[in-house]
Write a structure and sequence with these properties.
Elements lengths: L2 H10 L5 E3 L2 H7 L9 H5 L5 E5 L5 H9 L4 E6 L2 H14 L4 E5 L14 E7 L15 H7 L3 E11 L2 H13 L4 E5 L18 H8 L5 E7 L29 H4 L5 H14 L7 H11 L6 H13 L7 H22 L3 E2 L2 E2 L1 H4 L2 H19 L7 H25 L7 H26 L4 H28 L2 H4 L5 H4 L5 H9 L2 H12 L5 H14 L2 H22 L4 H15 L4
Parallel strand pairs: 1-4, 2-3, 2-5, 3-4, 5-6
Antiparallel strand pairs: 6-8, 7-8, 9-10
Length: 580
């Protein structure tokens, strides 16, 4: 982190109207935010409160506060170095109706009580084209906003993104929100001189100069208990907004602070640059194919993020990160053969598209290529990360062996299941973080703490997957609910159900599990009902929370500034509350 950024963070601490409460800070205090429900005491009046979420430099917050002294304005963002500009300007101007909160928008309801906010401005948020739940105008956030916005409060969206604007219009239409204003080319319309809408931020001016049109919609947020996500196909934006370009693997770009999405984009770009167009094609084409099928790339992304925590340049972890992803896909390729799986990420598996022998040999080549990529790291860290990589590879194989053995056993314990998923799922994620940290120059105790963090979120992730397979929303989960039940898979849910069931309930479980043929939907419904009778969902959620808490405790121990750890606190939260 540069000295200039550190100086800004230091100055932010001195501003009386700035509150810095990230995920980690709220957790450390273990106390409610002190001004929640008491903002009138802070401002010294009962004037309406207006939020700007994702306020960036705070230009809109400050400008609105100057225009409307009879209202109170609060800017919210996670980027403290950006927020510093608006915080300092408002402080120097002596504006008494301005405040700033540096936090994660996902927990914004922790700062405001019911009916405490009258309006929300969303000024040029990230469109999040591939992640509905992260869009600030999604129904997920509408449900969140209504917890503290007055009934009949206003939501304003101002954006350069055609995609986000169209999505928001569809969301508003589908949920029957009342629209007060709507314009898809603001500065070429009769409304361009409106004193509010004519406020232009630094980035907005850049977009206008590039010829992009600015859109605006204002709608009324009324209280309701159900929400409907729009089921429409919307064309992605074919441009990248100012300062949203994908970063390449260069020294210049790697010096910038990465969030999860930008690190993920770097991994995807680096994977595309790997050359598999070599002979014999029969060996390498399947490798190119399986790597092209997509995926979240969580493991290599975590390696880059861990490296960045200890170094200003994550470049050192790029090749080890690629090694981890190639290795992970090698395991999937061989798993598909053993499981006789026909599809992987919606496409035919390698052994189906080619044959078993090709899949085995190409998988073997992937493992070797993974080690070659790993060896491109700095010489002084190679022995350490090679040992970790090799030990992890063996453990993943051990986990797969346990998983296969469990298929023919009816006495699998909860402890055995947890050890299996630790080996099969969690250790590779944990190793990715540890390897990335070592590449960044981390101390051994910090690298080990990150490993423990990875184990915690890896176990929580797999248990969440078990839970979503039964109680997930099929549209969000991406596959038919009840797959584990229908194939009698030993999961945390099923094992605990047998442990807790009485004789009659065990008999009912056996009837469904041992039946040679049965109606799938009836089986899923019956077993789910038994799970609910036995409190299995609550038990699973409690256990997920325990592993999440262990992960956070481990992350707390890592000896770097909280700002550097924030992206991993956010990742843990996203995995904990994911719906897909």
């Amino acid at each position: 982190m540069g000295k200039n950024k550190l100086a800004k963070f230091g100055e932010m601490e001195t501003f009386p109207h700035v509150f810095q409460y990230t995920f980690s800070a709220l957790r450390e205090t273990e106390q409610p935010f002190p001004l929640r429900g008491k903002w009138n005491e802070f401002f010294g009046n009962n004037n309406p409160i207006v939020l700007e979420l994702g306020c960036g430099r705070g230009e809109y917050t400050v400008a609105l506060a100057e225009l409307f002294p009879e209202k109170n304005f609060i800017g919210v963002d996670i980027k403290g170095a950006r927020m510093w500009a608006g915080a300092k300007e408002s402080f120097q101007k002596g504006l008494k109706n301005v405040a700033f909160i540096r936090t994660n928008i996902e927990i914004i309801d922790a700062f405001f009580a019911s009916n405490e906010v009258s309006e929300i401005w969303l000024t040029f948020p990230d469109p999040q084209m591939k992640k509905v739940r992260k869009r600030l105008t999604s129904t997920r956030f509408m449900e969140l906003y209504q917890r503290f916005v007055v009934d009949g409060g206003l939501i304003h969206l101002k954006t350069d993104s055609n995609f986000l604007y169209q999505y928001t219009c569809e969301m508003v239409k589908t949920n029957h929100y009342k629209v007060e204003f709507q314009n898809d080319d603001l500065y070429h319309s009769d409304f361009s001189d409106d004193k509010i809408l004519s406020i232009k931020t630094f980035y907005e001016q850049q977009w206008i100069e590039r010829g992009l049109t600015i859109k605006h919609i204002r709608f009324v947020l009324d209280k309701r208990s159900t929400f409907v996500e729009p089921d429409v196909e919307i064309e992605y934006d074919n441009y990248r907004s100012y300062n949203r370009t994908r970063r390449g693997i260069t020294e210049k770009n790697m010096g910038e602070s990465l969030n999860f999405e930008s690190a993920q984009s770097m991994v995807k770009k680096a994977l595309k640059e790997l050359n598999w167009d070599i002979n014999p094609c029969g060996l390498y084409d399947p490798i190119a194919y399986v790597l092209s099928l997509g995926g979240k790339r969580i493991r290599p992304t975590c390696a880059l993020l861990a490296c960045q925590m200890f170094a200003d340049n994550a470049q050192e972890a790029v090749y080890p990160a690629l090694a981890l992803e190639v290795f992970h896909n090698f395991t999937l390729l061989h798993d598909d053969i053993m499981d006789k799986a026909d599809m992987r990420r919606g496409q035919p598996t390698v052994h189906v598209k080619w044959n078993d022998n090709t899949a085995i040999l190409s998988g073997d080549a992937m493992l070797i290529k993974a080690y070659q990529l790993l060896a491109k790291c700095k010489a002084d860290v190679f022995p350490a990360i090679c040992d970790i990589f090799s030990q992890t590879a063996v453990e993943v194989c051990e986990g797969q062996q346990y998983d296969m053995e469990f298929e023919s056993r009816n006495d699998v314990s909860v402890a055995e299941y947890m050890e299996m998923i630790r080996l099969k799922t969690a250790v590779l994620l944990a190793a990715s973080l540890r390897i990335g940290a070592i590449c960044g120059g981390a101390k051994e105790e910090d690298a080990k703490a990150l490993y423990e963090y990875g184990i915690g979120i890896g176990l929580a992730f797999q248990l969440k997957d078990d839970l979503l397979d039964v109680w997930g929303d099929v549209k969000k989960f991406g596959k038919k609910i009840g797959g584990d039940i229908s194939c009698n898979k030993k999961t945390f849910l099923l094992i605990n159900a047998y442990d807790k069931a009485n004789a009659e309930q065990k008999k009912e479980l056996d009837r469904w599990m041992l039946a040679e043929t049965t109606d799938r939907d009836a089986k899923v419904a019956a077993v789910t009902a038994l799970y609910e009778q036995l409190g299995i969902k609550d038990l699973a959620e409690q256990t997920i929370r325990e592993y999440y808490d262990r992960a956070i405790v481990a992350l707390d121990k890592v000896g770097v500034e909280k700002e550097r750890k924030e992206v991993l606190y956010q990742l843990a939260y996203d995995l904990m509350y994911r719906e897909d």
